Amino acid sequence: MKTNRKYILIVGMVIAVAAGSIKYLSHLATVSSNVNGHELPIYSVETEAKEVALTFDAAWGNEDIYEVLGILKQYDIQATFFMTGDWVEKYPDEVKAIYVAGHDLANHSENHKNMTQLSIEEQKKEIMDVHKKVKKLTGVEMDLFRAPYGDYDDQLILNAKDCKYYAIQWDVDTIVTKRSV
């Protein structure tokens, strides 16, 4: 069972690396995300370099985090971890371990809510509350935000920009999270 879990983790990471987006968007992108009058998150960044972005959502447990970090280290892979505020509070040592391992820390909202159902003020609070927690814990000024459930609209993208964040969205879902591990 443990070998099967490790196999699924490795396969999932390989698929994501092979099929994903561009790495380290924040320093590559000065992007206008307005297309046909609609604000869009960044799905990918064109580059001649053969790079992809591997990302993880850290919003629930921490059972596999050190195993994942070990695999990433073994294969010299850098990733971005999109964290919720609750996860940061529950697992501060894991947040620090991710940072010390050289991975990017990113924002996945304070409470993992459907962001488009919130007011402008509530959206900004969801973004900035987790930002403050990570800043206090690590000193990192995060600048990448991925909305829970991929739930975004024009206003959320603009609010993220107001909070000095690039809104990010996946362009390939490995569906590993939907399998029984």
Can you lay out the helices and strands and say which pair or pack?
Layout: H1 2-19, H2 25-28, E1 34-35, E2 38-39, E3 55-58, H3 65-74, E4 80-83, H4 85-90, H5 92-100, E5 104-107, H6 120-138, E6 144-145, H7 154-162, E7 166-167
Parallel strand pairs: 3-4, 4-5, 6-7
Antiparallel strand pairs: 1-2
Helix pairs in contact: 6-7
Ends distance: 9 Å
Shape field: globular
- How much of the sequence lies in strands comes to 5-15%
Just give the CATH class. Alpha Beta
> What is the averaged pLDDT score?
80
Strand order of the largest sheet: 3-4-5
Which regions are unreliable across 5 or more consecutive residues at pLDDT < 50? 14-32
Q: Report the major sheet.
A: 3 strands, parallel
Number of helices: 7
- Computed Rg: 16 Å
Number of domains: 1
CATH fold-level label = TIM Barrel
Mind telling me which CATH architecture this is?
Answer: Alpha-Beta Barrel
How many beta-strand elements?
7
Order of helices and strands: HHEEEHEHHEHEHE
How helix-rich are the residues, as a percent range?
Answer: 40-55%
Structural class: alpha/beta
**Considering the protein shown, what is the CATH homologous superfamily?**
Glycoside hydrolase/deacetylase
